[in-house]
Give the backbone structure.
Amino acid sequence: MEKRFRRSSVPLLLVLALGLVFSACGDNTPTSAPAVTTAAAATTAAAAATTAGQSSGQVATTAVAAATTAVAASGAGVAQVVIAQGVDPSTLDPQNHNETPAYNILNNIFDSLVVFDNSQKLQPRLAESWKQLDDLNTEFKLRKDVKWQDGTDFTAEDVKFSIERMLKSLGQGAKELKRAPNLNFVKEVTVTDPYTVKITTTAPSPLLLPRLATEHIVSKKYVTDKGDDFVGLNPMGTGAYKFVEWKKGASLDLEANPNWWGQKGGPAAKKVRFRPIADAQVRISALQAGEVDIIVNVAPEQAKQLDSGKTGISTAPSARVIFIILNTLDDSPTPALKNPKVRQALNYAIDREAIINSILLGNGYKIASPITKLFFAFEELPQYTYDVAKAKALLSEAGFANGFELEFKVPNGRYLKDKEIGEAIAEYWGKIGIKVKFAAEPWATYQPNIDARKQPPAFLLGWGNTTWDPDGTLYAQFYTGQRYSYYKNADFDKLIDVGRTVVDPKKREDAYKQANKILNQDAPWIFLHQQQDIYGVSKKIKWVARSDEGLNAFEIAPA
Amino acid sequence: MGKFIVRRLIQAVLVLLGVSFIVFGLLFLRGDPVSILLPQDATIEQIEALRVKLGFNDPFIVQYGRFLGNALTGDLGKSLFYNQPATTIVFERLPATVQLAVAAFIISILIAFPVGIISAAKRNSIFDRVGMLLALIGQSIPVFWLGILMILVFAVNLQWLPTSGYGEFKNIIMPAVALGLFTTARTTRLVRSTMIEILGQEYIRTARAKGLTQLTLLRRHALKNALIPIVTVLGLDFATLLGGAVITETIFAWPGIGQLAIESIGRRDYPVVQGVVLIVAFGYVLINLLVDLLYAYLNPRIHYS
């Protein structure tokens, strides 16, 4: 009898166990489990409130320097916004990461001294104004109405501490803060009075302001009291949102900071959740199902599908350009590439319009140099238009009328349609007589070969640079001896040196314009296109995509 | 029994040693992660300096020796990406994977046993044929396809369940079903075939001649004897579920160790990859041991000494 009872209870036990597993799921997450449901309900409620014309009391009265979209005067707030990026951040220490996804989240919690608006113009943020005292010194006047989220006052000491925290870590190997190299040209920070700070650089450094625009300021007291490890998991800033909870790999919750200096009453979106969803199709489904409100990296062919009903898309020209690096050095495995005429021919052989229109479905812009419209010192230069006859003529002039062999590789799945674009280019080059040995490789094996400089003499790459200063692209990609540079030109190097050391913006502009002209004619790259970033956005909210890939929740307004 | 367990535990250590060698060797061949740790415009000199500092310039055997030495003290190194101990990162994600594996496993047992037994008892009936057809389909559908399809149907169109995520009861349903389907299908077929074999045995005919009801016969005489081969497969299946949820976890944004492994491989976060692999290997070995011990319970004729 006893035995029989035990056996027949096996299925029952299984059911019980299943129940336990499920309830364990809930137990682990006491705060978030109800949050999802209430949030959904609250969002609907807020939407209803908006349509009914009621105000939930969130009238923005102060103009926000940092916020570039007009959040002001829209009346009601948004109860909760969920934003899906592809990956989770590595840390919440704003000075110890190298990733856009982490920056995007932290920019809601922290502020920088200055900031680029969506037209790539520098704007005040924690610094009200700044003044170049001489070649080496810049003085910043700080806002006096800023408080840390723990209630303490924000002062010049915090600025000094933040920058020195980075500088002190330099050269500490694995302990070096990952963002520290960005400011390695800063010599010292001097506090003049509680709201004035002077930054001294080791040499004239025109890059100071563009670099400061992406460096968040941390609280001296908080970081000193709590220690690095705690700070990496519990961020506390001066920004629009307070950190609530991070469940790694699952969700990261923020809530509006009602005392934010940037907007009276705090930002319009009251609760913000960031979720990592790796699969692009699932991100789209989540948006369509109404679970999330903003998704990143929508593929061109899926954009149309999203642009109807409850969802829409928002696009922005990207800070990223796509190109093919040619090995023009003396020891190039393909000596033909040393001849600028050959490189021009390879540029003329490609139909960029066809690539942009048919492969990217219009989501790209032709480029004639590495510097796009979004950058300082941009100048319109002659495009390499599709011209097979001219390409062939240039090849014969260079003595390669019968073409030559060229090994060419592209990554597969790293950039928008990279493999398809590579296939098209291999074919275009074939048409002018080049015998192309083409291969597409996954990024995981492709990337190490870039670092080891083992890529073939022609390989495709993308480069993003959100300092909006040409230096970040031109120095790394073309300056003699740099990691990505397969180009050697003393005249060009001199111009880049001017850009790096001369503070006078006019002189810098001239130097970069000249440098760009050299690149345009000398063609060490195959210039392809500037990408366009596509975001999916719920119609419940108003939000405009940014060229720096930022996801600033404080720029969200109710629909 | 005690001796048997000790011997198996020694074997387990050897297995883990072998696994650690393979995973370390494979990652070594992929190249070091130094360039990923630095900003994209770092110079070649900066990269080289960090490489020396982190010991990536040492010969393979030196690096492996250092890794093993630390691993023996439970230290798998600091995650290069998260800046926290790799073991902390892995153990943070482990509960989600275990939840998903257990849920998938239970779903598969709840479906496989009744369907398998009835199919065997009513062989060649409509129920049997439909059941086996579904099992065949279940075994053939790739999980990434099924996962996306389920999301489109149940989350986007019907809006019954969330597309993805973690934290609530309804979050686990789709990933558990998607993950459990293959195991369900295979177990169903196994239960059916084993039961058919046993139902043809002489002692079953004797039992039937004694006048036992079909239900008692199936439960007391057939199923218990059928369990031995089934438990073996189930044990391995469960171990596979624990380590093999990589695709399911990625699709459903489930924050377990499968997703962590994929991300960490992409980031060349070697300590974390090693941690995941070693823990999965350990789980596999442990479950195998438990299955062996379970044999003795199911079949008293088996003794370990």
User: Anything to note?
Assistant: Residues 136 and 185 of chain B are 7 Å apart (CA to CA).
